[in-house]
Design a protein that fits this description.
- The complex is a heterodimer of chains A (about 150) and B (about 375).
- Chain A has 6 helices and 3 strands.
- With about 150 residues, chain A is mainly alpha-helical.
- The N and C termini of chain A lie far apart (about 80 Å).
- Helices cover about 75% and strands about 0% of the residues of chain B.
- Classes of the chains: A mainly alpha (about 150), B mainly alpha (about 375).
- Chains A and B meet through helix 1 and helix 2 of A and helix 8, helix 9, helix 15 and helix 21 of B.
């Protein structure tokens, strides 16, 4: 038996339609549940805005900036200018550091798209690889920054 | 002299027929693609070598062939026919998978569901071509682009088709860089391919720990037949995330999955004996497999475009192609196609979210199809 007759005889249309529907329904339910997961956890840990009055939260919710770190509202598009903004973070981390540490610090301080910026730094050789995931700041860039200042 | 003549008539050179030669050539092609072209080498190398081993002609009745009782290969093949190896591979996969990107953007899970449409379209196609329902369901699951899932379902529904279905599934997984990009480009315009995805929120450790426990309940309650795959998959993931069983997680994602992959690949390859494998059905399975995989890719992309009609913040429709469960091949391909248009567009993490939901989706589909066939 072939063709549409075979599909109908073996209940193919119903199987295909019901199968597709069940998979969709299953994954929609799963995605809905996991989309609420972090909210449930916030409730559980009583960090949700509803509970904020019970905790003496500081009026200003913005994260405290590290000393010497200033993230402007309008982030510069120029790479050297961006590098200058990263300078305090580098000083905080020391001469050599892991890229992941710099990423974390940048993220913590609210720098936008740190992974893209760090990739650009690497390509522009502002960040120099020392092997084993350790990186250093290109001193020439630093001097250039200071000259610009 | 008689002894020498008898020995010579028992050698592979004397017993070989053209089907063995064809399959040995196929085996060499697999080895070439795996080693020289580096197309999914962890899969193609064991399978390719298995094809060589399985197609060495031998004197029947010696207990040598994979289909002969008491042969070593037959015992190793037991893990395939019972669905044991796929289950173990899923344990390792779970211990490797990071669901952070999926947890950060759960809506991408819909693309994983959409890409499963290839399975159901192919089910209809296989039935129309005259395959029996159990065979059709086994062929259709190739559209999930998941080798272990295909083998698992075929072992349960149509064990006589394991060889061609496994080879088709793994071949198309290896050929992702060839099959998917043209479909992605055909269905999207440059403007759509340039869409950048916002940075994903940070996911807490607690979310990552709770997810596998919640997901296994929700998915396996819906399709209990997928327990052997999803049960081990989410268990592996829980081992990884709970933080107190690192040794077990490490073993699951290294030694255990590697052992299962080696034995799975070798025995699946060896199951392609020319006389069993080279049939018109195998050719039809390969054609339907290609159709299934292409439809799966296309449905993901098209569904992403449909989602964009309703979303304020548009998603890059290329991500839909990563909804198939070939991890991480299709996610990597989506990322590369995105970067070929805009080198600063990083789609990998979002594509991984679709990819991991594709794994869950195809395992659920396998469970659903198995349940349907039990009812029939």
């Amino acid at each position: 038996m072939y063709g549409l007759t075979a599909i109908s005889t073996h209940n193919g249309w119903a199987m295909a339609f019901a199968g597709a529907l069940i998979v969709f329904a299953g994954l929609v339910v799963l995605s809905s549940v996991i989309s609420q997961l972090h909210k449930v956890l916030l409730f559980w840990e009583k960090k949700h805005p509803v509970f904020k009055n019970n905790h003496k939260m500081p009026e200003n919710d913005e994260p405290e900036e590290a000393p010497g770190t200033h993230v402007p509202r309008e982030f510069p598009t120029d790479l050297d200018e961006t590098a200058r903004l990263y300078q305090p973070l580098i000083e905080e981390l020391g001469e050599t550091f892991y890229l992941s540490d710099l990423y974390e610090v940048a993220k913590k301080n609210g720098f936008p798209h740190p992974h893209i910026t760090l990739t650009a730094f690497r390509e522009a050789e502002i960040l120099l690889p020392y092997g084993d995931g350790v990186f250093g700041w290109n001193p020439h860039t630093e001097n250039k920054d200071k000259e610009n200042d | 002299m008689d002894l020498l003549f008898q020995f010579l008539t028992n050698t592979g050179y004397y017993l070989a027929d053209y089907r063995n030669v064809i399959m040995i050539v196929v085996g060499f092609v697999f080895l070439y693609l795996g080693t020289a072209k580096k197309y999914e080498p962890l899969l193609l190398v064991p399978i390719g070598f298995g094809i060589l081993v399985g197609n060495i002609p031998f004197f029947k009745g010696f207990g040598l062939g994979i289909y002969e009782n008491n042969s070593v290969l037959h015992y190793l093949y037991f893990g395939v026919t019972t669905g044991l190896y796929p289950s173990i591979v899923f344990l390792g996969l779970g211990a490797m998978t990071d669901f952070s990107s999926l947890l950060a953007r759960p809506s991408l899970m819909l693309l994983g569901a959409a890409a499963q449409m290839g399975i159901f379209f192919t089910l209809l196609g296989a039935l129309a071509l005259g395959f029996l329902p159990k065979e059709a369901a086994s062929i259709a699951i190739i559209g999930g682009a998941d080798g272990p899932t295909s083998i698992f379902l075929t072992a349960k529904l149509a064990p006589h088709l394991i060889g061609p279905i496994a080879i088709a599934a793994y071949s198309y997984m290896a050929l992702i860089p060839v099959i998917q990009p043209p479909i992605m480009r055909l269905l999207t315009n440059r403007k759509e391919r340039l869409i950048r995805m916002p940075e994903l929120r940070e996911v807490s450790k607690k979310e990552r720990i709770i997810f596998p426990a919640v997901a296994v309940i929700l998915c396996c309650f819906l399709a209990p037949a997928s327990i052997p795959l999803l049960g081990t998959f989410f268990f592996g993931n829980f081992l990884k995330e709970c933080g107190v069983a690192d040794r077990l997680a490490q073993t699951a994602r290294t030694a255990i999955i590697d052992t299962a992959t080696i034995l799975l690949g070798l025995t699946v390859g060896a199951s392609t004996q020319g006389d069993v494998f080279l049939t018109p059905k195998s050719v039809a399975i390969f054609v339907l497999g290609a159709v299934a995989f292409s439809i799966a890719t296309a449905s993901g992309v098209i569904f992403a475009k449909i989602m964009n009609l309703f979303l304020k913040e548009k998603i890059n429709p290329l991500l839909g192609a990563a909804g198939v469960s070939a991890v991480p091949g299709s996610a990597r391909e989506v990322h590369l196609v995105g970067q070929s248009e805009d080198p600063e567009n990083f789609l990998l993490m979002h594509a991984m979210a679709c990819n991991s939901s594709g794994v869950i989706g195809s395992a659920i589909c396998a469970g659903i199809l198995w349940s349907f066939m039990v009812v029939l």
